[in-house]
Amino acid sequence: MSLPHASSSLPDASRLVHVDLGERSYDIHIGRNLLGNLGPLFAKMFGGAKAAIITDKTVAGLHLDAVQKSLEASGVETHVIVLEAGEKTKSYEGLTKACDAVLDTRLERGDLVVALGGGVIGDLAGFVAGIIRRGMRFIQVPTTLLSQVDSSVGGKTGINSGHGKNLIGLFHQPSLVLADSAVLDTLPRRDFAAGYAEVAKYGLINDPGFFAWLEANWQEVFAGGPAREEAIARSCQAKADVVAADEREAGQRALLNLGHTFGHALEGMAHYDAERLVHGEGVAIGMVLAHEFSARLGLCDPSVTDRVIAHLEAVGLPTHIGAIAGEKPTSDLLMDFIAQDKKVSRGNLTFILTRGLGQSFVEKGVDPSEVKSFLEEKLA
Ligand SMILES: NC(=O)c1ccc[n+]([C@@H]2O[C@H](COP(=O)([O-])OP(=O)(O)OC[C@H]3O[C@@H](n4cnc5c(N)ncnc54)[C@H](O)[C@@H]3O)[C@@H](O)[C@H]2O)c1
Ligand SMILES: [Zn+2]
Predict the structure, then answer these.
(1) What whole-number distance in Å separates Cα of residue 365 and Cα of residue 264?
(2) Which domains does the chain have, with CATH numbers?
């Protein structure tokens, strides 16, 4: 049993996206220079509670001060836990460290964890909140584009195991998400572009109008004009709609995996080495492969793939396997990773395929030999 979430409205210029999940519902606040709103929002929603801010070293150096000052100015007692930056923190070791540090603060079950960082911190801190004292509430303050449009929304939390990514975890919804688009000004361009792959994904899943809007406005999204907030808000709304309809991925939530089965295989092949490939880049290549594979099956016109490639290339994302530095994978190696993916049942593979731009669907009966010969062609 978790504590109820309170209403989060505050009179300001931010956009609100509501995630409708009954008693687990919450709001996502999106806007420029919003970090200062955290204290007043916290005090209004959770008056009297304390906060443990979990962050990483890089983000701590850039944005911790603003967050901590805002909370303290509103009378919220804060404790800060700073972890190493990077995917390795989403591990048993990172989990132990973070849990013990939260317990050291003597916070109680009614207090909150604040996850300040990218998807690594959000996934880990959300999981920590979910298991400490059988469930504390938590707030997501995502600081990467990927975490603002994807990982901070929807309640998937967890860590990696030696057996694979995200295998240990919980569904645990945050009580509030605060996405300040200005914090993305300090994000390296490559990380911004990687997060943008997930933004484009929402267009390719079921919103061709959004994809066309991105083709026309992506420069302003990158530059930090109002189109950035628009892109974040539309992405969050798209994710909120899917999550509200299928919180635990019984069906349609799987659409969010467009490009991810191929993408995860490429990440695995590159040993999750961020120098070679980061998640969003794998997703970009994976989305192109999903379109090409759909075309090969006669489902989708090849001109759609050309349009997808043109846009992803325009923003500087890789679009083919050959763009990944280092040794080329074999189709056998990629098939091994694909078979290990969670989306396998009775020998058939589940893929997100498409019938056209923004017309994706879940296909559970994909014959592995078709995928293998497709990959062999791509690698030839
Ligand atoms: N829970 C979900 O639904 C979900 C969805 C997608 C991805 N994920 C997970 O998210 C993780 C990837 O997230 P990510 O791409 O945000 O990675 P990340 O959290 O590792 O952040 C990337 C890098 O950017 C730095 N950084 C963060 N904010 C910054 C800022 N404002 N300025 C400068 N540097 C900044 C971080 O310190 C880190 O070095 C993966 O572990 C993935 O599995 C989860
Ligand atoms: Zn993703």
Answers:
(1) 19
(2) 15-186 (3.40.50.1970), 189-379 (1.20.1090.10)
With beta carbons less than 8 A apart as the criterion, state whether 177 and 29 touch: yes
User: Token pair for residue 98?
Assistant: 């973070």
The answer to whether the beta carbons of residues 370 and 348 sit under 8 Å apart is: no
Compute the distance from residue 151 Cα to the ligand 2 centre, in Å: 8
Catalytic sites, residue numbers: 134, 156, 198, 239, 249, 253, 257, 260, 264, 279
What pLDDT does 163 receive? 77
Task: Average the pLDDT over each of 8-17, 235-244, 315-324, 346-355 and give the range with the smallest value.
Answer: 8-17
Residue owning tokens 């280092």? 326
Q: Kindly report, residue by residue over 89-139, the tens digit of the pLDDT.
A: 999 999 999 999 999 999 999 999 999 999 999 999 999 999 999 999 999
Mutate which of 53, 62, 83, 143 for ligand 1 pocket (most atoms within 8 A of beta carbon): 143
Structure token pair of residue 22: 């009954």
**Is 364:370 a contact under the CB 8 Å cutoff?**
no
Write the burial class of residue 303 (CB in 10 Å: 0-12 exposed, 13-18 middle, 19+ buried).
exposed
Q: Quote the CA–CA distance of 61 and 75 in Å, as a whole number.
A: 23
* Each residue's pLDDT tens digit, 195-212: 999 999 999 999 999 999
Is there a contact between 237 and 334 (Cβ–Cβ < 8 Å)? no
Residue at 256: amino acid letter: L
Q: Which two tokens stand for residue 198?
A: 């997930």
> Which residues have CB under 6 Å of ligand 1?
56, 58-59, 62, 85-87, 90, 117-121, 123, 143-144, 146-147, 150-151, 154, 156, 165-166, 183-184, 186-187, 191, 279
368 CB neighbour count, 10 Å cutoff: 14
pLDDT digits (tens, 9 = 90+) for 261-286: 999 999 999 988 899 999 999 999 99
